[in-house]
Hints:
Elements: H1 15-26, H2 29-41, H3 45-73, H4 77-84, H5 91-123, H6 132-144, H7 147-165, H8 168-195, H9 200-208, H10 217-230, H11 237-242, H12 251-279, H13 290-300, H14 305-338, H15 343-362, H16 381-408, H17 411-418, H18 426-453
The chain binds 4-fluoro-L-phenylalanine.
Amino acid sequence: MSMGHHHGRETFSSGLAVFFATLGSAVGLGNIWKFPYLTGKFGGGAFLLVYLSCVLLIGLPIMLSEFYIGRRTRRNVVGAFHQLAPGTPWKGIGVMGVSAAYLIMFFYSCVAGWVYYYLFRSLRGDFAAVTPDLLKNEFGAVVTGVWTPVFWQWVVLAVVTAILIMGVKKGIERITKTLMPVLFLLIIACDIRALTLPGAGEGVNFLLHVDFSQLTPAAILTAMGLAFFKLSLGMGTMTTYASYFTPSNNMMATAVKVASADTLVSMLAGLAIFPTVFAFGMEPGAGPGLLFMTIPLVFSQMPFGQQLLIAFFFLTSIAATTAMLSLVEVLIAYFSEEHGVSRQKAAIGNALLIAVVGMLAAWSADPVGPLGQVVFGGRGFFDWFDYLSSNILLPIGGLFIVLFFGYAANQQDIIDQLTNNGTLSLGRSTLPIFFFLARYVTPALLVVIFLNAIGLLKV
Ligand code: PFF
């Protein structure tokens, strides 16, 4: 089944397509929802600084490892390890990646459903005159409802499936190339409005002012985990996308560009949210509800607020959708290449499975939801899906991927692959740095995150 090259296996058609597709995977709810809320919670600039270091020291080496593995083999994540290290346990990384893709999709599609629903409501003009209490109740009603969250989760899955069935070029490439620039424009529009508000400076200050007293060990570990989730690393998503990269792509440049652009989008999201939060006297550390409970309020009080609100939820929907394309593509590539299932069947079958199990996430996201009281080991379904994927599977996956790159893979093969057989001169000077990071620095940092995540190291 998994022998030789697959005829008709698609690739992206240009360097630009590679960039936008990969960026589409990285940019998601992580930028617009998680990044601002965590930065708010951990005090702004100092957290940001640690996050940036993590992107450099953990994110880039793992991304490059995944790019190497993916384009070298041009296979799905299980097949890739099977090809590079046949008959060894390294294949387990692929199996873990496939499991992580499911777990993330179960809850991510649920949160994306809320975003779609808020987009729909803002289009309908429902948020024209809202109060803080009203919004809180509204959000509560959504997360504790029975069919509303599930319905919108299914809409999300239907959209993602429809795009994926169209294929790598006609689906993923076309959609990301069209929508990622739109996302940039919309976020800049929101930024301009936010930054021209009276009192916006306080928000900018908050984001950029570095105060090391806030920098607890817990904040450092959170920043590391965020870098992971943000850049879609540790589970073969980037491996899968790299398997569609063009042969001439400069993957070291792509890694640096994607990591920088993703960071820029996070910053732009922060610059849209914090000035508005401060200008209207809200709490920057409001937590996960920040997006749904404050943004509609904030926009409702300003000129062009309703249009900006639509723009805001539209760009968030784009971000969430293009990230999910990459998550489900991991599954489609796996089932079509390892089990001979057609692309269409793999897409529909997985969407159905995610729709069914995803209901558990939708009904347990809130303690007073239908399954809110089903708690085991201190967590409900929603929290387990999030915890197991982000804190367990991604760090372990990332650790083994970078160890594979640093120790197990053939050095010369890596050099050939990352320099496009010696045609890229940049590689000779930068590759030794990546090898050093991949062998020593990244694994050491990851072990610390992981020990903390499973509670062996209490910091
Ligand atoms: N990077 C996405 C975000 O920041 O929202 C989330 C994500 C996508 C994580 C794909 C993992 C993944 F494989």
